[in-house]
Amino acid sequence: MCPEFLREGSGVADFFNPPFVVVGTADERVTKVLTDMFAFLDREITVVEVRSAEALKYACNAFHAVKVSFANELARIFRSFGVDSREVMQVFSQDTILNISPAYLRPGFAFGGSCLPKDLRALLDMARVNVVDVPLLAGTLRTNELVITDVVDRLIASPFRTIAMLGLSFKMDTDDLRESPNVELAERLIGKGFDVRIYDPIVNPERLVGSNLRHIESRLPHLRRLLVGTPREALHGADAALVATSDSAVIDELQTSPPKRILDLHGRIGAEVETLPGYEGIGWAV
Fold it and tell me: What is the C-alpha to C-alpha distance for residues 72 and 78, in angstroms, rounded to an integer?
């Protein structure tokens, strides 16, 4: 499978200057033949599984469609405020670190924090006030909600009821719990009767202040009772682990004392853990 990305009207130019050359095969002979065949392009050949090559075509075209709809929805909102969305997107596209880059394009758990949910809701409110329908942006919040619901449903369907949550803040190396999907997940599991123990290498209840403290007190008022000091304490007697951090102490303990099921919410916890019995990715199979 060699997915092509030739645009109508510029197919020849695209053929000789492709963004990448992908070969989907498990046959080394095919890899050799196609590598030789495409050598004139002077591009590195990326060899993947056949289904990955097939899926890549869908992923690229779906993302292009999302980008068009994203720009158009923003334009419909911004025009009500006299903003030239062409100027906004022209500057937007200059950010190749976060905006037009691999950043965030990584399967994993739901987004959270003090910025993304707040600003997305602000945009939706701006759209509502001006009677602008923005299903893509509205659907983004719904999609995020479904990621959390999926994890809860998978655990409810399992026989496991004692859960170790490894990582609580909305991202590693911060103690920011505001709108953390991990906090939402913990709250739902506790509400469903699960025995939840939480370890986070950064979060210390004594150091939480301001809106961060108010948020966690409203969602997990018993956080001090739920938090443990080491990954070992969290995993002791646990049936399953929800892993939202690649902290080295967590990885080491998972290898030393793996529970019956490991649900990876992070996506980059390493091959040593991914090869353990009971490992399961949140959106991928190993």
Answer: 10
Interatomic CA distance for residues 100 and 221, integer angstroms: 39
Local structure of 177: helix, strand or coil:
coil
Instruction: Please state, in angstroms and rounded to a whole number, the distance separating the CA atoms of residues 204 and 147.
Output: 27
Asked if 204 and 216 count as a contact pair (C-beta separation under 8 A), the reply is: no
Superfamily of domain 144-281: NAD(P)-binding Rossmann-like Domain (3.40.50.720)
Residues involved in catalysis: 115
Whether 263 and 282 have beta carbons less than 8 Å apart is answered as: yes
| Predicted local confidence at residue 277, as pLDDT | 94
pLDDT at 184 over 80: yes
**Sequence spans of domains, the chain:** 11-92, 144-281
Cα dist from 20 to 15, 40, 96, 265, whole Å: 10, 13, 18, 29
* Structural tokens at position 24: 């989907």
* 56: pLDDT strictly greater than 60: yes
Average pLDDT value for the chain: 93
162 burial (CB, 10 Å; 0-12 / 13-18 / 19+) is middle
CA angle 168, 225, 203 (to 5 degrees): 30
Q: Count CB atoms within 10 A of the CB of residue 206.
A: 6
pLDDT by residue (tens digit) across 227-272?
999 999 999 999 999 999 999 999 999 999 999 999 999 999 999 9
pTM score: 0.85
Cα–Cα separations (whole angstroms), residue 147 to 109, 150, 252 = 7, 5, 27
The band of 285, judged by pLDDT with boundaries at 50, 70 and 90, is low
The enclosing H or E element of 63 equals: helix 50-78
Q: Distance between CA atoms of 89 and 67, rounded to whole angstroms?
A: 11
